[in-house]
Amino acid sequence: MAEQHDDGSAAASKHPHAAGDAFAHDTGDAITAQAVTINRPVGEVYAFFRDFTNLPTFMENVVTVDLLDDTRSHWAVKAPGGGTVEWNARLTAQEANSLLEWTSEDGADVPNSGRITFRDAGARGTVVTATIVYDPPGGIVGKVIAKMFQREPAIQARRDLRRFKQLMETGEIATPAMNRRQFEEMGL
């Protein structure tokens, strides 16, 4: 029988390594770990995520991800106050249908690294766990400001994984606002 895992913070998991302790540095960096179970086969979930150009479709603060080569990409992400932050990321490890690890390259506006794991959950689909380590600009003050603007990575990781789940399971992301087509169908 497959292990049961609840969706939510991997940092609160009963499993000792769920939060990605390999990324916990003694540098004062912030770490966040979140998990979600997606009712789709692991190969399908991994393939969609591995095409990094798909990520802006469900990561609401990611403006663009441009592929530079097979292992490098350039990211532009919305920042608190309306600006953007950018960095180049390099894959440091990848295992098909199982693991993606990355680190930002020197000169990143927000130095970061992380790991996404994909685990077959049998009839339940795929457990996706995201662990991100980042150096918040402005230290603790910057982190507080990012939280106020809902741009703090721990908040975003949870939201983005929920949006990823919706997209993979239903083909769309539910929003509280009516979209243009719905207004047109109502004659408004």
Automatic annotation (TrEMBL):
Gene3D superfamilies: 3.30.530.20. SUPFAM superfamilies: Bet v1-like (SSF55961). It comes from the Bacteria. CDD domains: SRPBCC_8 (cd07817). Residues 1-23 are annotated as: Disordered. PANTHER family: POLYKETIDE CYCLASE/DEHYDRASE AND LIPID TRANSPORT SUPERFAMILY PROTEIN (PTHR33824), POLYKETIDE CYCLASE_DEHYDRASE AND LIPID TRANSPORT SUPERFAMILY PROTEIN (PTHR33824:SF7). This is Cyclase. It comes from Sphingomonas ginsenosidimutans.
